[in-house]
């Protein structure tokens, strides 16, 4: 698969917490955990489960940065 999005973080699924319609999927990317909210249908279609290799693809029009003053 090839995507135009440049922010692709490959890692391993460490947790999938299903809700009524949406699941929270946690992916360990080199010691940092990224969490994505996806539909339960997507979890089933992608066969997302603990231990599966997956890539978090981040596509955003804005990235904000904050610092403590």
TrEMBL record:
Q: Which UniProt keywords apply?
A: Molybdenum
Q: Which stretches make up the Mop domain?
A: 2-67
Kindly indicate whether the keyword Hydrolase belongs to this entry: no
Q: Does the keyword Cytoplasm apply?
A: no
PROSITE patterns annotated for this entry?
MOP (PS51866)
Gene3D superfamilies for the chain: 2.40.50.100
Q: What is this protein called?
A: TOBE domain-containing protein
Query: To which species is this protein native?
Result: Alsobacter ponti
**Source organism phylogeny:** Bacteria, Pseudomonadati, Pseudomonadota, Alphaproteobacteria, Hyphomicrobiales
């Amino acid at each position: 698969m090839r995507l135009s999005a440049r922010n692709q973080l490959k890692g391993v699924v460490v947790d999938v917490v299903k809700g009524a319609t949406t699941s929270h999927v946690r992916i360990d990317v080199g010691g940092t955990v990224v969490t994505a909210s996806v539909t339960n249908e997507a979890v089933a279609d992608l066969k997302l489960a603990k231990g599966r290799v997956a890539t978090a693809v981040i596509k955003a029009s804005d990235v904000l940065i904050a610092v403590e003053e």
